[in-house]
Amino acid sequence: MSDISFIHAADLHLDSPFKGLSHLPEAIFQKVKDSTFEALDLLVKRAIDKQVDFLLLVGDLFDNEKQSLKAQVRLRNAFEELKRHDISVYLSYGNHDFTRGNSHPVTYPDNVFIFPDERVTHFIYQKNGVGKTAIYGFSYENRSVTEKKADEYEIISGDIPYHIAMLHGSLYSNTEHDVYAPFRLSDLTDKSFDYWALGHIHQREVIKKDPPVVYPGNIQGRTSKEVGKKGCYHVELSHHGVSMTFLPLQSLEFNKRTVDISECDELHQLESVVLRTVTDNGVNAGPELLQLIISGVPSKLEEWESSLDEVIQLVNETVMHHRDWKYIYRYSIEQALTENYEGLAEGEHFVGELLRHADSVSIQPYLTELYQHKRAKKYLETISLEEENQMKQKAKRLLVHELLNGGGE
């Protein structure tokens, strides 16, 4: 039997705008926009089903500091449901929902305990009138916290059996995200906390098991970079140690799927192969937004490339209305230049110079104007290095194909 049972979640990002997805059919896009709220509802249900003592929410409950009334009311309703089951909530705000950015906050019920500012403070959770757990944390007052907050966590004296630290921040070594409230692993493990509840990084990771230093990830994927199952950890503390169980919460999954069309002899066969790949329930039985990577014989890919949009549309029309719907929202061709094309890059001619230049140049400067556009930038995701390379490969194939086949002037 555990002495203390709780759920650790972070990065809810309620009311996320889902940039770059507004081109989806209205019915699908509405399901996508509702997904963070559905994940929140399931989070509450899991907490009630597990009969936990409390819920930890470690920053970025909302997607931005100007929190919509809808998002705040939905969260308040969730907290009221937890109160009806005697479940406490301890929350901190992060870099997305920092406290000074919200001029019209909603009042939450009295089972909710909020770390008010950037000072590391603590609350005592009492069970049956006895102090059982000290919970430590802080909230971002402004968008950025660059101080080493880990140094401020100190265990209070007394007879409290368990000590849990909540920290919305990242390792110094993390190069994929903005580094806020930075720490080294030793900064945490050198202190005698029973559990470090982290937030900010959307990829689930147990950095260390003893003592547990844990990122639960976000509760709902929101971009092509946030693939797979998303959720929270159910944690039980006892004198025997710590038990952790991951609980999926996502309403839908972002995933990548690869389809090999090498065995297709005619264009009409392409639809069946793609459909079979998309509906393979052995991969995932739930709703999915799919990024499809198409590979195969280069000559066929080049011949059929202009018809791929129509094939994808036909497949989407077949599977988008199912209960466990699928929708291909993006596709790319995985095709290196043929050996003949690669040899051209060594030549002292225009095509060779063009290919060498394409390899060395970054596409980012050419996108600057678009990403600074007042309206467009709200709907655009940052392009990853993988996506940039895919764009380059596609551009090189198109240019060389047109130049060598008389398509140019």
Keyword list:
6-stranded mixed beta sheet, Barnase, Chain D, elongated, Purple Acid Phosphatase, chain A, domain 2, 10 helices, 409 residues, single chain, alpha/beta
Would you tell me the structural class of the helices and strands?
alpha/beta
Order of helices and strands: EHEHEEEEEHEEEEEEHEHHEHHHH
Named CATH architecture of the largest domain: 4-Layer Sandwich
Apparent shape: elongated
CATH superfamily of the largest domain: Metallo-dependent phosphatases
CATH topology of the largest domain: Purple Acid Phosphatase, chain A, domain 2
Number of separate structural domains: 3
Multimer state:
single chain
Give the beta-strand count: 15
In whole angstroms, how far apart are the ends?
A: 78 Å
For the sheet with most strands, the description reads: 6 strands, mixed
Please state roughly what percent of the residues sit in beta strands, choosing from under 5%, 5-15%, 15-25%, 25-35%, 35-45% or over 45%. 15-25%
Q: List low-pLDDT spans.
A: none
Q: What integer value in Å does the Rg equal?
A: 25 Å
Helix tally?
10
Regarding CATH, which class of the largest domain? Alpha Beta
- The residue-averaged pLDDT reads 87
The largest beta-sheet arranges its strands as 4-3-2-1-11-12
Helix % is 25-40%
Walk me through this protein's architecture:
- By secondary structure, this protein is α/β, with parallel strands linked by helices.
- It has 3 domains: 4-248, 4-Layer Sandwich (Purple Acid Phosphatase, chain A, domain 2), CATH 3.60.21.10; 253-335, Barnase, Chain D (2-Layer Sandwich), CATH 3.30.370; 337-409.
- Helix content is 29%, strand content 23%.
- The protein is built from 10 helices and 15 strands.
- The protein has helices at residues 26-49, 69-83, 185-189, 268-278, 298-304, 308-319, 339-344, 350-360, 364-371, 385-404; strands at 4-9, 54-58, 88-92, 112-114, 121-127, 130-137, 162-168, 195-199, 205-209, 212-215, 231-238, 241-248, 253-260, 288-295, 326-334.
- The strands form 3 sheets. Strands 4-3-2-1-11-12 form a 6-stranded mixed sheet, with helices on one face.
- Strand 7 (162-168), helix 3 (185-189) and strand 8 form a beta-alpha-beta unit.
- Helix 1 packs parallel to helix 2.
- The longest helix has 24 residues, at 26-49.
- It is elongated, with a radius of gyration of 25 Å.
